[in-house]
Design brief:
This protein is mainly α. It has 10 helices and 5 strands, in the order H-H-H-H-H-H-E-E-H-H-E-H-E-E-H. The strands form 2 sheets. A 3-stranded mixed sheet has the order 3-4-5, covered by helices on one side. The protein is elongated. The two termini are about 45 Å apart. The N terminus is likely disordered.
Protein backbone atom coordinates (compact mmCIF):
# COMPACT_ATOMS: atom_id res chain seq x y z
CA UNK A 1 0.00 0.00 0.00
CA UNK A 2 1.30 3.48 -0.80
CA UNK A 3 2.23 5.63 2.18
CA UNK A 4 -0.11 8.59 2.83
CA UNK A 5 1.29 11.87 1.58
CA UNK A 6 1.91 14.27 4.49
CA UNK A 7 -0.19 17.42 4.45
CA UNK A 8 1.76 20.44 3.30
CA UNK A 9 2.69 22.79 6.10
CA UNK A 10 0.63 25.55 4.47
CA UNK A 11 -2.49 23.34 4.62
CA UNK A 12 -1.92 22.46 8.27
CA UNK A 13 -1.23 26.10 9.11
CA UNK A 14 -4.43 27.32 7.43
CA UNK A 15 -6.52 24.59 9.07
CA UNK A 16 -5.29 25.63 12.52
CA UNK A 17 -5.80 29.31 11.68
CA UNK A 18 -9.41 28.60 10.65
CA UNK A 19 -9.99 26.76 13.92
CA UNK A 20 -8.81 29.79 15.88
CA UNK A 21 -10.80 32.20 13.71
CA UNK A 22 -13.96 30.11 14.09
CA UNK A 23 -13.59 30.05 17.90
CA UNK A 24 -13.17 33.82 18.01
CA UNK A 25 -16.07 34.39 15.60
CA UNK A 26 -18.41 32.28 17.74
CA UNK A 27 -17.31 34.23 20.80
CA UNK A 28 -18.09 37.49 19.02
CA UNK A 29 -21.54 36.23 17.97
CA UNK A 30 -22.37 35.20 21.54
CA UNK A 31 -21.38 38.67 22.68
CA UNK A 32 -23.76 40.31 20.24
CA UNK A 33 -21.46 40.90 17.29
CA UNK A 34 -23.58 39.93 14.29
CA UNK A 35 -21.39 41.29 11.50
CA UNK A 36 -18.26 39.64 10.16
CA UNK A 37 -15.09 41.04 11.69
CA UNK A 38 -11.46 41.09 10.65
CA UNK A 39 -9.18 38.72 12.51
CA UNK A 40 -7.37 41.58 14.28
CA UNK A 41 -10.72 42.86 15.59
CA UNK A 42 -11.63 39.39 16.83
CA UNK A 43 -8.33 39.15 18.70
CA UNK A 44 -8.63 42.63 20.23
CA UNK A 45 -12.24 42.07 21.27
CA UNK A 46 -11.80 38.59 22.69
CA UNK A 47 -12.26 38.00 26.39
CA UNK A 48 -10.54 34.61 26.31
CA UNK A 49 -7.55 34.65 28.68
CA UNK A 50 -5.71 32.38 26.24
CA UNK A 51 -6.02 35.03 23.52
CA UNK A 52 -4.47 37.64 25.79
CA UNK A 53 -1.61 35.23 26.47
CA UNK A 54 -0.97 34.61 22.76
CA UNK A 55 -1.90 38.07 21.43
CA UNK A 56 1.52 38.91 19.99
CA UNK A 57 1.91 35.50 18.36
CA UNK A 58 -1.58 35.66 16.85
CA UNK A 59 -0.82 39.02 15.24
CA UNK A 60 2.39 37.65 13.71
CA UNK A 61 0.65 34.49 12.53
CA UNK A 62 -2.04 36.59 10.87
CA UNK A 63 0.61 38.24 8.68
CA UNK A 64 1.88 34.84 7.59
CA UNK A 65 -1.64 33.68 6.88
CA UNK A 66 -2.21 36.71 4.62
CA UNK A 67 0.96 35.92 2.71
CA UNK A 68 -0.12 32.30 2.21
CA UNK A 69 -3.68 33.12 1.11
CA UNK A 70 -3.17 36.25 -0.96
CA UNK A 71 0.14 35.57 -2.62
CA UNK A 72 1.13 32.61 -4.77
CA UNK A 73 3.75 31.53 -7.29
CA UNK A 74 2.92 31.26 -10.99
CA UNK A 75 1.95 27.61 -10.63
CA UNK A 76 -0.48 28.44 -7.80
CA UNK A 77 1.64 27.25 -4.89
CA UNK A 78 1.76 29.42 -1.73
CA UNK A 79 4.60 31.91 -1.83
CA UNK A 80 5.22 31.17 1.86
CA UNK A 81 5.52 27.65 3.27
CA UNK A 82 5.57 27.75 7.08
CA UNK A 83 8.41 26.03 8.92
CA UNK A 84 7.61 22.96 11.01
CA UNK A 85 8.01 24.86 14.29
CA UNK A 86 5.59 27.57 13.08
CA UNK A 87 2.98 24.94 12.23
CA UNK A 88 3.46 23.31 15.63
CA UNK A 89 3.11 26.72 17.26
CA UNK A 90 -0.24 27.59 15.67
CA UNK A 91 -1.59 24.07 16.16
CA UNK A 92 -0.61 24.27 19.82
CA UNK A 93 -2.37 27.62 20.21
CA UNK A 94 -5.50 26.22 18.55
CA UNK A 95 -5.54 23.24 20.93
CA UNK A 96 -5.01 25.39 24.00
CA UNK A 97 -7.72 27.84 22.96
CA UNK A 98 -10.21 25.02 22.38
CA UNK A 99 -9.30 23.23 25.63
CA UNK A 100 -7.45 25.59 27.99
CA UNK A 101 -5.25 23.72 30.50
CA UNK A 102 -6.76 23.96 34.00
CA UNK A 103 -4.71 25.74 36.65
CA UNK A 104 -5.71 23.06 39.15
CA UNK A 105 -3.39 20.68 37.29
CA UNK A 106 -0.33 22.13 39.02
CA UNK A 107 -1.93 23.69 42.12
CA UNK A 108 -1.00 22.38 45.55
CA UNK A 109 -3.75 20.00 46.63
CA UNK A 110 -4.85 18.82 50.07
CA UNK A 111 -4.39 22.40 51.24
CA UNK A 112 -3.85 22.90 54.96
CA UNK A 113 -6.06 25.54 56.55
CA UNK A 114 -6.37 27.06 60.00
CA UNK A 115 -8.89 29.02 62.10
CA UNK A 116 -8.47 32.54 63.52
CA UNK A 117 -8.61 31.08 67.06
CA UNK A 118 -5.89 28.47 66.47
CA UNK A 119 -2.63 28.82 68.41
CA UNK A 120 0.00 30.32 66.14
CA UNK A 121 2.68 28.03 67.58
CA UNK A 122 0.84 24.88 66.54
CA UNK A 123 -0.01 26.32 63.14
CA UNK A 124 3.62 27.37 62.55
CA UNK A 125 4.80 23.82 63.35
CA UNK A 126 2.27 22.40 60.88
CA UNK A 127 3.50 24.79 58.21
CA UNK A 128 7.11 23.81 58.89
CA UNK A 129 6.32 20.08 58.80
CA UNK A 130 4.69 20.41 55.39
CA UNK A 131 7.24 22.86 54.02
CA UNK A 132 4.65 25.53 53.20
CA UNK A 133 4.87 29.27 53.75
CA UNK A 134 1.23 30.18 53.09
CA UNK A 135 -1.92 28.89 54.77
CA UNK A 136 -5.52 30.03 54.18
CA UNK A 137 -7.40 31.09 57.31
CA UNK A 138 -11.04 29.98 57.37
CA UNK A 139 -13.81 31.14 59.69
CA UNK A 140 -17.19 29.42 59.39
CA UNK A 141 -16.12 27.90 56.11
CA UNK A 142 -15.11 31.20 54.47
CA UNK A 143 -11.60 32.38 53.64
CA UNK A 144 -10.87 35.43 55.79
CA UNK A 145 -7.16 35.82 55.11
CA UNK A 146 -3.78 34.23 54.57
CA UNK A 147 -1.27 33.34 57.23
CA UNK A 148 2.23 33.55 55.78
CA UNK A 149 5.70 33.04 57.17
CA UNK A 150 6.38 36.74 56.49
CA UNK A 151 3.39 37.76 58.61
CA UNK A 152 4.53 35.50 61.45
CA UNK A 153 7.99 37.08 61.26
CA UNK A 154 6.52 40.60 61.44
CA UNK A 155 4.38 39.60 64.42
CA UNK A 156 7.41 38.14 66.22
CA UNK A 157 9.40 41.31 65.61
CA UNK A 158 6.58 43.49 66.92
CA UNK A 159 6.20 41.36 70.05
CA UNK A 160 9.93 41.44 70.81
CA UNK A 161 10.13 45.17 70.15
CA UNK A 162 7.28 45.75 72.59
CA UNK A 163 9.11 43.68 75.21
CA UNK A 164 6.29 41.17 75.47
CA UNK A 165 8.25 38.15 74.31
CA UNK A 166 6.68 35.38 72.25
CA UNK A 167 3.53 33.56 73.22
CA UNK A 168 2.96 30.32 71.31
CA UNK A 169 -0.70 30.31 72.28
CA UNK A 170 -1.39 33.68 70.67
CA UNK A 171 -4.34 33.28 68.29
CA UNK A 172 -3.82 33.42 64.55
CA UNK A 173 -6.25 36.35 64.52
CA UNK A 174 -3.72 38.52 66.39
CA UNK A 175 -0.92 37.52 64.04
CA UNK A 176 -2.99 38.37 60.94
CA UNK A 177 -3.15 41.96 62.14
CA UNK A 178 0.52 42.23 61.13
CA UNK A 179 -0.07 41.18 57.51
CA UNK A 180 1.43 43.68 55.08
CA UNK A 181 -1.62 43.43 52.79
CA UNK A 182 -4.58 41.64 54.42
CA UNK A 183 -6.37 41.22 51.07
CA UNK A 184 -3.48 39.74 49.13
CA UNK A 185 -5.23 36.66 47.79
CA UNK A 186 -7.51 35.90 44.85
CA UNK A 187 -10.07 33.16 44.22
CA UNK A 188 -10.81 31.12 41.09
CA UNK A 189 -13.32 28.32 40.31
CA UNK A 190 -12.10 24.73 39.81
CA UNK A 191 -12.35 24.93 36.03
CA UNK A 192 -10.25 28.10 35.76
CA UNK A 193 -7.46 27.93 33.21
CA UNK A 194 -3.75 28.49 33.64
CA UNK A 195 -4.25 31.72 31.66
CA UNK A 196 -6.68 33.09 34.25
CA UNK A 197 -4.27 32.36 37.09
CA UNK A 198 -1.39 33.96 35.18
CA UNK A 199 -3.52 37.02 34.45
CA UNK A 200 -4.17 37.51 38.18
CA UNK A 201 -0.48 37.32 39.03
CA UNK A 202 0.48 39.61 36.12
CA UNK A 203 -2.09 42.25 37.03
CA UNK A 204 -0.75 42.13 40.56
CA UNK A 205 2.81 42.64 39.34
CA UNK A 206 1.72 45.63 37.25
CA UNK A 207 -0.10 47.21 40.18
CA UNK A 208 2.60 46.39 42.72
CA UNK A 209 0.22 44.18 44.71
CA UNK A 210 0.90 40.62 43.57
CA UNK A 211 -1.44 38.10 45.25
CA UNK A 212 0.42 36.01 47.80
CA UNK A 213 -1.84 33.15 46.73
CA UNK A 214 -4.55 32.25 44.27
CA UNK A 215 -7.05 29.90 45.89
CA UNK A 216 -9.07 27.51 43.76
CA UNK A 217 -12.34 26.73 45.52
CA UNK A 218 -15.27 24.46 44.75
CA UNK A 219 -17.58 27.41 44.09
CA UNK A 220 -15.10 30.02 42.87
CA UNK A 221 -15.95 32.10 45.94
CA UNK A 222 -14.37 32.54 49.35
CA UNK A 223 -17.06 30.35 50.90
CA UNK A 224 -16.26 27.30 48.78
CA UNK A 225 -14.06 24.39 49.88
CA UNK A 226 -10.41 25.08 49.05
CA UNK A 227 -9.30 22.59 46.39
CA UNK A 228 -5.96 24.06 45.36
CA UNK A 229 -3.47 26.81 46.05
CA UNK A 230 -1.04 28.65 43.77
CA UNK A 231 1.65 31.14 44.74
CA UNK A 232 3.92 33.40 42.65
CA UNK A 233 6.54 30.64 42.86
CA UNK A 234 4.25 28.56 40.61
CA UNK A 235 4.39 31.06 37.74
CA UNK A 236 7.14 29.20 35.81
CA UNK A 237 5.07 26.01 35.93
CA UNK A 238 1.94 27.93 34.94
CA UNK A 239 3.80 29.39 31.97
CA UNK A 240 4.97 25.96 30.94
CA UNK A 241 1.42 24.62 31.21
CA UNK A 242 -0.02 27.59 29.33
CA UNK A 243 2.61 27.45 26.61
CA UNK A 244 5.46 29.88 27.18
CA UNK A 245 6.41 31.29 23.80
CA UNK A 246 9.36 33.47 24.67
Amino acid sequence: MPHPVPRANADRFLAAFRTIEDLLSRDAERNGGGHRRAFAELVDGSGRPAVQHFRRELRELQELRNAIVHKATRDGRPIAEPHDDTVELIEGIARRMAEPPPALTIAARDVMVCHPKDDVGMVAMRMRSRGVSTMPVLDRGAVVGLLTSDTITRWMAAELEAGRGLLETAPVRDVLAHAEHPDEHAVLPPGASAYEALALFRRGLESGRTPRAVLITATGTETGRVQGLLTPADMPRLLELAGALG
